[in-house]
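ping. complex inputs:
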Amino acid sequence: MTSDLLATISTPADVKRLTAAQLEDLCAEIRAALLEFGKRHGGHIGSNLGLVEACVALHRVFDSPADAIVFDVSHQSYAHKMLTGRAEAFRNAALFGTVTGFTNPDESEHDRFVLGHTGTSVSLACGLAKQRDMDDSSAIGNVVAVIGDGALSSAVAFEGLNNAAEQGGNMIIVFNDNEMSIAENHGGMYATLARMRESNGESEPNLFHAFGLDYMYVPDGNDVHALVDAFESVRDIDHPIVVHIHTTKGLGMDTDPEDVAHGYREGRCEANHWQDPIVQASSTSPIPSSEGVGEAQPGREESPHPADPSQGARKFYGQLAMAELEQRFAGEPGLVVVSPATPGSNGITREFRERAGKHYVDTGITEEHAVAFASGIAQAGGRPVVATSATFFQRAYDEIQQELSLNGNPVTLLSFGGGLSDADNTHSGAYDIGFFGNIPNLTCLAPTNRRMFLKMLDWSTSLTNTSPVVIRVPGQTILDAEIAGVDDPAGVVAAAVDARVADRSHPFDRYVVKHHGSRVAIIGLGDAAILAQRVADALAAGNDGRQCSLGAVLSDESFDRNLGAGATERRAFAGGHSPREAGEPIEASVIDPLQFSTIDEATLRTLPASHDVVVTIEDGQLEGGWGEKITAFYANCMPEAGVKTLNFGARKEFTDRVNLASLLDRYGMTVADIVADIRAVL
Amino acid sequence: MTSDLLATISTPADVKRLTAAQLEDLCAEIRAALLEFGKRHGGHIGSNLGLVEACVALHRVFDSPADAIVFDVSHQSYAHKMLTGRAEAFRNAALFGTVTGFTNPDESEHDRFVLGHTGTSVSLACGLAKQRDMDDSSAIGNVVAVIGDGALSSAVAFEGLNNAAEQGGNMIIVFNDNEMSIAENHGGMYATLARMRESNGESEPNLFHAFGLDYMYVPDGNDVHALVDAFESVRDIDHPIVVHIHTTKGLGMDTDPEDVAHGYREGRCEANHWQDPIVQASSTSPIPSSEGVGEAQPGREESPHPADPSQGARKFYGQLAMAELEQRFAGEPGLVVVSPATPGSNGITREFRERAGKHYVDTGITEEHAVAFASGIAQAGGRPVVATSATFFQRAYDEIQQELSLNGNPVTLLSFGGGLSDADNTHSGAYDIGFFGNIPNLTCLAPTNRRMFLKMLDWSTSLTNTSPVVIRVPGQTILDAEIAGVDDPAGVVAAAVDARVADRSHPFDRYVVKHHGSRVAIIGLGDAAILAQRVADALAAGNDGRQCSLGAVLSDESFDRNLGAGATERRAFAGGHSPREAGEPIEASVIDPLQFSTIDEATLRTLPASHDVVVTIEDGQLEGGWGEKITAFYANCMPEAGVKTLNFGARKEFTDRVNLASLLDRYGMTVADIVADIRAVL
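pong. complex structure:
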């Protein structure tokens, strides 16, 4: 391998021009590039290393985009991207991050969908094939779904498999069997798959035969020639077939001394799933942390400190929670942590899992099962905790509403990653307040520091609590504030709640007034509590708050750069408020609502007597969210009071890797904007 | 069979006291009672007839409630209810309707969950078993899940099966294989199940073996002795096992001349699934129509009139829609109707399905697959329509957000049964506005008569439309208004939209002012448009509107009876508005918003100039819904205008078979209440 074959590949047609021998060289180049990309940039390197040969073989045999290839979850599409005109984004550090970690039609005609959640590729492929078979003028040829890396155990994947056989017609389902899910494979079918591998695909029961599907086994899924032969044999097939390829996740890492030193290749699949960069490329920002949402990030998990804040908020608060629960395991048999995969990223370390024993259950990538399962545990008297990302809880909406909330069973949902962030568009946490907050009978808690977080968890998992609870795990803004000591310096919130725990069955249903002021009351939910305090500080100081934002102080330069369009836009949206200006000092009231499931009418009723404006700030979508309910309360229930309300939060939109400061500015959620808007209505 | 054995059964212990021979008599009595109940009251008679012997055998062998029995969907639990102290509710016409059609812990300790959606029983059973195995003091013995009647093809059911084997420990999964789903079974696994039946359970691939589960086959699932033997053999088993019982749906109907005459027993499974009463029991109201949500109701489907309003709104508008689409099938290959089961109840008749051919796909009970499948069709250029109940679309929340809306594919979701009704708590349509309306990039249309409905469908399925759309199929309130000719008598809405279709890419994004008045503007969304008009009429007449409600004029008696508590409650909630009184005539503006996905800022900005109060009325939960967004708009974007807003809609709560008039009164949604509230703030 001396020539630079990748430089000659700009479309799949170029793959077809290579000699058979060159295919191996191409695979080697891609693998080397992925290894280097992983070290410098990070990403889902392990599964992509395993799928290098399959991607080359797919583009050798099939004619994308006419032949449609759908990558499930699409986190395994790096080699595909490199073969479809995007290689430099993985090879040139200056271009790292210019393509997403998932397929994206905006990038290439070879990507038909934006996907980041698990299990839908077969259903999407059924749709493409259906349209092809309905429309004689359709340009679509073969339809290929690529699924695996744990995705097969996801609910909708089974629905897809079950419908594929019935639909009939050309469809090729490539099942990438790397013997791994994110942590490990879970479920009875994995023993069946192991027997199928051991028997060279001959054994029964064959899971795919059981769904009425034709089947082929490729034992060496990293042999590009074997894969080319297999795909050739099924190209233009007239019925659905599963091509079961056995690949090695992380293949190539073990030959790289730096990888070995970094511990990437240690036979643990979880450590192979998501990779942080070793060497930070100087010319680019690291891959957004959102891509790793719900994914294990190796090298950090084995921290000797059970809850080291430098790991970031997700792992820090997750580890804190697990440590608290672990102390109670011996005496509370029904205290069970349920994780529908991706434990590592939520601070559920391997050591914890081993120590927890039967108090920990990894159900695989099965959010629906996890919620219903927990509801069963709770109905039988236990106090289970289901831990996953806000974006993944979406998959169990119906079970959260029906099996959990309608049935009123005391399960605790620990929701990680809620709120605004630089996440990609498939993993955004901007929708969680509305998602959870409008379900009847579900208590939704939003702690504003670790002390409140653990207090809420302690209560929700106690026998005192008899109904379902979701706890929005604090984000980085809270963690930064805690480190800076500005979260609740006087301990007012904790003291107020402590007093209530003693004499109330629900200690979190009433808001806490952290500071009693007048004219303006600012209520900041969860992570937005920090911004609420900063707005109050700016009002009290009589300045315009230009140097503050939700997460941290912005540089003047970035502030000014970001401000322009956003502020103007917000002005227009907000009806032409006057531009921000300094003014007389205002001693505002600051309120921590603690929760977003009910309106604390009693507290709200007291405000108009001494306040002209009530401001709400939330770290998520306004529409359907929380703050507008407070506005509606005053409009409907106290119309005579004439109190003005202002709601700050995110627009109803999808965003894709927009940095947080830009988002906050876009939504008018800087201290300066909020101060200006408040002064404009006073 | 002469004695009345059922009268001697008040608990499962009584089943155990019978002789073996008496078990057959008991089954015969239950079957006779179910047949009579079905004729007089209606219900899921077919599947329950098939499960009579299994329920008797379960209670003969197992010791409920210590042994926990979880019925999937729980629509097959009638015989179980009759054996656990609730037989009279099925035998005494005066007591019909006093128990629900689903399991309910409020009714009996033998019911552990309220369930009405499909596929979660195995996961719930895993939870019960987990808690039992964690807690030495648990009273739970055997854990039994009863699943079948089409439920096995549901996504979460597979997740449950896959996790059951891994969990281990005692669990008995009774698979009721009646060879049927609601319409018919769909999917590749049904051929596998057929081979398993034909081979007396010996064939491979065995679907359950593929999931790592032990397995037993009972060929005659209506032989109570065979079932008792089978259950005895697995009682206290130390690992999960599937007991596959082959039953006959509707068994007993063919021996009943009246049934035969009514066409219940015609070898068509769909006609057996849900049964309307033949003879209306005089002493009780019919079983709420909500129980049949999404279920086929035989005897009406074969109407010679393609869209007969007497069938009710669901079928009427569904048939209208299908008739419109059908005309276009020949010329539009990508126009495909996708039904995740339950087609009959949505007016998708068997005749239509047969004529539609490949333009109709029943995917089985698989909402997630159906939405992703449709997204695939649309991505490939088609214009699919997915038709099901609002309550069932909940199951595909993540696919609607990710595969559909994030990807922006032009699928039309036809959502039936949205809005307030007397539905049971598992099938309520009260949450659909918030469910759909807060998803970015999803256009949400709420037609207020058939003309608008078909216009919207025509647009959403045309090539002009390039993004996903949900259409809230009009409900009975709209149909009644259409029949009475009061929906849009002057044709103002239709004319306005007609004008826009010609020159706008999105003809439904702007509200239509149906009547220009002053002081008060009333915006009624979808079905609530009728109530909005009636409020305007009452204001114009200067009366207090006491005789009007959303659906129909109530009798004075029922109005007064219902009014008391509800009105008082609303008063308190609404902050002590003055009691209703007649007043000066007010010529209010009446506005049809057409949609609930965006705020029509331009129209809203014009209102304050000539209106003091803007009123919103919606047919669903206020929190997270639509009207409060308009309140928030005025508060945030026109604070200087000082316009007052009032929002009418439902509370955030679960309701169970509360009649619509009572609900409307509870929520202050009568003409009288709304008029009074408006006059109070003027």
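Residues 19-246 of chain B form a domain with the Rossmann fold fold (CATH 3.40.50.970).
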